[in-house]
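Hi all, posting the design record for the shared folder.

TITLE: backbone redesign
STEP: 1 of 1
STRUCTURE INPUT:
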């Protein structure tokens, strides 16, 4: 959705950290970092809510946020968010297939081009599903320099989990201002992304009965660098 300013109270108790921009030089690097990305996402979802601010709590929906003040992005100022939404009359497998399709890609980011979902810089063998380095862009007003993302996309189809994180790769020279690789060429600015989703079977109560449903859990951190605290709903 649209980028919005986050109220200061949404920063929670802080203490969060995220993995930095790993340098992906080949398949071994990609598989090793993909596994670490999925472990990081699982730990964020499973963490208790003590340091998280609850921005939304309603039937079948919960959104929480916290401040990143440890690790390589501790100067970012952008909040980390996680959410869970239960959707009726859909299976977890069907919801995962939708959300990891070009149509789902556009639901997640309405400003994106669904055709970009099939593009990649380099693809690697991975027993769990698709694993690839890809380029993405953030549409901004003409006043701003173009923002680009260099990400590793890792699909674990068996666990119905998708994780995407910013990395460094030879196909896209440079890195964000939080890494030591220098700025990208031609005045472009490297933005940062950590995004994850997973789906699981669930149920929604309706009177004394329960309807089949699925829960989708999300993690989001997007730093366009040089912008104020942003939330991406």
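Okay, here is what came back for every position:
SEQUENCE:
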């Amino acid at each position: 959705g649209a980028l919005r300013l986050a109220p200061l109270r949404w920063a929670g108790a802080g203490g969060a950290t995220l993995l930095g921009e790993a340098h992906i030089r080949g398949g071994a690097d990609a598989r090793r970092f993909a596994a670490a990305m999925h472990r990081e996402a699982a730990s964020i979802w499973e963490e208790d809510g003590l340091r998280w601010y609850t921005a939304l709590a309603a039937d079948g929906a919960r959104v929480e946020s916290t401040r990143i003040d440890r690790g390589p992005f501790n100067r970012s100022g952008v909040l980390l968010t996680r959410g869970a939404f239960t959707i009726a009359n859909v299976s977890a497998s069907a919801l995962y297939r939708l959300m990891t399709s070009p149509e789902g890609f556009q639901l997640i980011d309405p400003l994106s081009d669904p055709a970009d979902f099939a593009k990649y810089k380099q693809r690697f063998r991975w027993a769990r599903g698709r694993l690839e380095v890809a380029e993405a862009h953030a549409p901004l007003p003409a006043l701003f320099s173009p923002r680009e993302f260099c990400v590793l996309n890792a699909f674990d189809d068996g666990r119905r989990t998708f994780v995407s994180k910013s990395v460094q790769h030879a196909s896209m020279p440079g890195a964000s201002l939080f890494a030591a690789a220098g700025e990208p060429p031609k005045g472009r600015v490297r933005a940062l992304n950590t995004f994850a989703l997973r789906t699981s079977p669930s149920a929604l109560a309706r009177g004394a009965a329960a309807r089949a449903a699925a829960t989708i859990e999300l993690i989001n951190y997007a730093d366009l660098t040089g912008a104020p605290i942003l939330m991406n709903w």
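COMMENT: The radius of gyration is 18 Å.
Let me know if anyone wants the other runs.
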